[in-house]
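Hi D.,

Good news: the full-assembly prediction came through. Inputs first.
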Amino acid sequence: MIIVMASSRPEDVEHVVQKVEELGYKAHVIVGVERTVVAAVGDERGKERLTALESLAHVERVFPILKPFKLAGREVRHEDSIVECGSAKIGGGHFCVMAGPCSVESEEQVNSSAQIVKAAGATMLRGGAFKPRTSPYSFQGMELEGLKLLQAAGRATGLPVVTEATTPEQVGVVAEYADMIQIGARNMQNYGLLRAAGKSDKPVLLKRGMMSTINEWLMSAEYIMAEGNPNVVLCERGIRTFETETRNTLDIQAVPVIRKLSHLPIIIDPSHAAGRWELVLPMACAAVAAGADGIMVEMHPNPEVAMSDGQQSLKPKRFSMLMEAIRPLLQVMNKTL
Ligand code: PEP
Ligand code: MN
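Then the structure:
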């Protein structure tokens, strides 16, 4: 249920929160520009008892949230959310470019990657330390050592870092070294992992599962938010279709669809969608034109020797070309990098 406050005074909001909790629901306070609301979420049965709160003087209105995703939906928050990640802002007109290698491979590789993407204009550094690989025999990532190298490369260039946690147990250590926790496509419905990320105070990048619907994706965001972490950024990275020419099919329509359903920022990962480096630049341009709040791009100083995803990684020069291609489009779309 949405409880729209007639007063935003902290003691009035606190009073409503208390009442909601007494009725056995969890209260999430959402402060918007035009209004403050308390979203009461929990068991759908018996939620009508919350309507009694309408009799309080500092409550304007109580009404049900119709969509299954309660906190992620537009119903509770009309304005776009802006997620802050260190010096980077994502959403509400702020465009973010997360770039870097698929995997952290060595100190030299991650440092030079950071310098290259920073010089070209990226706003965040990516790099996997715990890698979710299809084969158990493929490179699994440098793990803790990789996290430390990524953090150091981010600090040296002033770029906040994003990296993946693949199990609930990894969330603590990833949150310690990274500025943003990535949840990969293969883990979008790993509910233990979602809950663990929801308990963290770091923002979360939630990739869409390759076989998940938009509704399922938003329900996964809901798992994170229900634990008290409102800082979720959605990432469309291609879905599996009958097409075999590309690794996945980029669902560019997800951008305007999400925009309508949710206040959360949405970014596009053209690298994993395409699986081929030559498609990355045009799809990055399409992402900006569709209204995305950012992109995540794989760049490797030397893709031929990459330990993962070399075929879809841009060389330094191509990454600079991509940045130059999107700049005029960002201006047209009224977005700032
Ligand atoms: C990645 O970002 O390197 C990755 C593994 O992505 P996805 O989860 O989208 O496959
Ligand atoms: Mn990759």
